[in-house]
Amino acid sequence: MLGPLQPLIDMVTSPLFLMIVLFPGLTSIAIIGALLGWLERKVTARVQLRIGPLYASPAGGILQMFADLIKLSFKELFVPENSDAFFFIMAPTTGLVIGAALVGLIPFAPGLQIANIEVGLPAFLAIITLSPSLVLLAGWSANSKFPFIGGLRALFQQTAYEIPLWLSALGVIMMAGTLNLAQIVAAQSTGWFIIPQALGAFIFLVTSVAEMERLPFDLPEAESEIMMGWQAEYPGVLFLAAQGPGFVKLYAFSALFTTIYLGGFLGPSLLPPLFWMLSKTLVVIILIMLLRSTFPRVRLDQLLRAGWTTLLTLAIVNIGITYLLVVGLPTF
Amino acid sequence: MTDLLFLAFAAVTIGAAILAIEARDLVYGAAALGIAFLGVAGLFFLLDAAYVGWFQIAVYIGAVVVLILFTVMLVGPKMGEAPLGLKRVSLLAAILVSLLLGMTGALANATAFPGKDSCGSGCDLYLLSTSLLKNYGVQLEFMSLVMAAAVIGALALSKTDRGP
Amino acid sequence: MVAQGIPEIGAYIGFLFVSTVALIIVLKLLITPRDPRPTPEKKKPFESGQIAVGPGRTRFIIQYYPYLLMFVVYDVIAMFLFAWGLNLRSLGEAGSLPVLVFIVVLLIPLGYALHLANHRENW
Q: What is the distance between the alpha carbons of residues B63 and C71, in angstroms, rounded to a whole number?
């Protein structure tokens, strides 16, 4: 009797649609992103012996970012004069979409994965390469000095971290013998890759913090030198769209680190796999947040020098070590 | 469905490529070039070559388009409006290029490109890897030489006379 | 025949894009206030409270340009190394020899570039 509505109902209740809309897709990303904003302020406050957000709450100011969201929605939305309105609006919006798209590649539990791509790890790293060029376009579009400097810094920062990031991920691929993220998790059932890949995991963590543009590598937005950099001119909701990718990428990269180094959803079976996945991800997130309140910001030339010499050399050494672990000592 | 997707990706690629040439503002041209590369990546996905498709995105959009964007922004908008006057030459060039492409297509063996039937289960990533390193190892070395020459050339070109 | 998982990620990205743009448009139309008192100062570029001077897109970072050129070349090597890495167990030592030569050939210009970077202070 439902008749013509039946295909629609089938689509809405299909597992893929539910995953896209609820978990691990849209709704959960929005809520987790907002909660991460609160958590970051709380963790930073605890390190600096402050209290942090307190009042917008049932408990400990947990609704602070939702309050900020509502506040920013009531701000006036305008485009600065002589700026490029198309890129000014499209660049942060697309950046937010790209950040959220990364979550769709992560296996959160057996079967709980939006897109099980055969080459999942390169797909993740390929999608993320789009974000610095969007930052550059956003900084260029505002026609203002600080945003433009921030955009250019994002561009040069990408040249420093990206190659070590790919080469450190190569160590995992050599160990697992596959590019598929679910199969990489399955390959860790005998032992987490963080033990043989300790050096690779370190490089991956450092370069992914640089990719997320978080302290100590937040050169493109460095609020104490270039006034939030590329985000300086963004008003209201667009500022939200510019800030959002930071937290969404923090979530996605921590989930990827958990997946490829910490055994993903594997764990003792008395609790469900999803619990292990999310709790390990939370540990990685808090570790990255502690980096933020511990280290001072580096300069652009220091980052470029470190990326092209230290990190790249360590990544190649890591590939050599992994080769010896997988194949054995050379005989020729 | 696949045909429709192919037509959509091809239309996006060609449309964005035309926009990349004709855009008045060169930054828009560079961004349109990025969209064209995305369309090409979509064509690779349709051919069941996801590996090549993702690296198309990572290398061409993540690095090449970024370099072009930077250069265009460096040069600035004033110098970006010259090539519009050369309509007749560009028409001739378009005819020549399409003739060349048509001849190449006619000369190519019909079996060289299997068309819609992608390579299926036989050509997985492991086969690609084995044939790249066992059959095409020499070509790989030549490729590395080309890349090394490119780096040295870039360094020589960007060398300024400042400093010792 | 589309590669595995691509339709899903395509649908997901499309859904994300439509919902993000729709959310921003809805917020703009329903909640965000109109400009009640338009002033010319409001739309001026932000320069820490000073009056903005000169064009906005002039402060270029050019001294690291060689790194950008090198990045375009070295970004490609991941493609070949990933194809080698995923099959390392069955390729073994004999199959890995071309990759070893590949890496060594590419490290030589890198060393030259970093030598230039260290000896000439401009980048």
A: 7
